[in-house]
Amino acid sequence: MQTHRIISVVGCHAEGEVGDVIVGGVLPPAGATMFERMRCMERDHDHIRRLLICEPRGSVARHVNLVTPPIRSDCDAGLIIMEPTEYPPMSGSNAMCAATVLLETGMVPMTGTSTLVHLDTPAGKVVVRADCTGGRVRSVEITNVPSFVFHLDHPLEVAGHRPMTIDVAYGGMIYASVDAKVLGFAIAPDEARDLAVLGEKIRRAAREQIACVHPENPDISGVSIVQFAMPFEGVGKVTRNTCIVSPGRSDRSPTGTGTSARLAILHARGQMAVGDRMTHASIIGSEFHGRIASVSAVGGRPAIVPAIMGRAWITGMHQYFVDPEDPYPQGYVVSDTWGVGGGINQG
User: Fold this and answer.
1) What is the mean pLDDT of residues 326-330?
2) What confidence tier does 223 reach under pLDDT thresholds 50, 70, 90?
3) Which residue among 17, 73, 141, 192 is least packed, with the fewest CB closer than 10 Å?
């Protein structure tokens, strides 16, 4: 065996969604903020994402997280999230995985049955409260960045489909939320392919037709993910949803930033208030439990501060090598397995 690079990764998933964590072999990228570090990673070191997410080492179902020293003095670690086609500012399932790995590997010490981990993310500071017993992380609750609505009932034209309306909201990523029942879906596993195909069509149409720019960071813009949401079942009840991750697949978890965006939409519609709780179930039946912790404002827009609870599990330890004679040092994608969009970057 020969290799000119070794990357150490802890395997992890949060309620079914893979969010592996790099713990060795990759230095922190340059930047004065975590957002700048994320952009540096995307611009100058994207071969790391391709190496670990593309075949033959990875798959479209994988996300990879790089933990770094924080920029902010009030945080324990920095977090850069790498997904199949983008570097999102924040991800709930990935933050759950990162916090679990940090605590269970001892990179951040467990300080009791309720341990706080402060993450410096490109979207801002995220506080994770971990329930720790017997040296294990049993569950985590993320107090996410403020989440808010761009549009309610915005009309959208999608080629080959009747006109529809969508809600657009930010929960750490920008979501287009569409009524799944109106479109004839029940969010069942056997609908996954059809949901992915339509979700990608909706995402591309929304990016073309609807302007949405974060009021405090203009580099965060455009719909990133489409959420198919079943009708709200009520406060304290379980409501099914699935979020289509580009290039076209259902998030196996209920999606933390998607749940945050949904809470913002429900609050804007007057269906939920501060202190109210709801549960999102995913396409595989796993659950995230969300609540509206408080109200806030972002760039003059009304916002909420959501808190999302879920669980993550470590699945293994891996070391990845790059043989100098390997013809695929950055991997490859083939459309039969790489979602429905086919690209390595969001279009």
Assistant:
1) 94
2) very high
3) 73
Q: What is the pLDDT, as a whole number, of residue 344? A: 87
The answer on 187 and 91 residing in a single domain is no
How many structural domains comprise the chain?
2
- Residues 87 and 233 grouped into a single domain: no
Residue 101 belongs to a domain with what CATH number? 3.10.310.10
Rounded Cα–Cα distance for residues 189 and 286 (Å): 12
pTM of the full predicted structure?
0.97
CA distance 88 to 287: 22
Which pLDDT tens digit goes with each residue over 130-170? Answer: 999 998 999 999 999 999 999 999 999 999 998 999 999 99
Residues 47 and 132 in one domain: yes
Which residues contact residue 89 at a Cβ distance below 8 angstroms, ignoring those fewer than 6 apart? 35, 38, 81, 121, 122, 123, 172, 173, 217, 220
The token pair that represents 128 in the structure block: 């994770």
The token pair that represents 215 in the structure block: 């009021």
Spot the catalytic one: 8, 91, 114, 139.
91
Domain membership of residue 224 (yes or no) is yes
CA geometry: angle 131, 310, 17, nearest 5 deg: 130
Note whether residue 22 is domain-resident: yes
Domain membership of residue 94 (yes or no) is: yes
Q: Are residues 154 and 278 in the same domain?
A: yes
In this structure, are 34 and 131 located in the same domain?
yes
Q: Is residue 331 part of a domain?
A: no
Give pLDDT, residue 342.
76
Runs of H (alpha helix) within 8-91: 34-44, 46-53
Q: How sure is the predictor about 323, in pLDDT bands with cuts at 50, 70 and 90?
A: very high
What angle do the packed helices 46-53 and 34-44 form, to 10 degrees?
70
- The boundaries of the domain holding residue 106 are 6-144+313-321
Interval 69-88 mean pLDDT? 98
Active-site residue 91, yes or no?
yes
* Lookup result for tokens 């293994």: 316
Same domain, 135 and 153: no
Per the rule left: phi > 0, alpha: psi between -120 and 50, beta: everything else, 123 is alpha
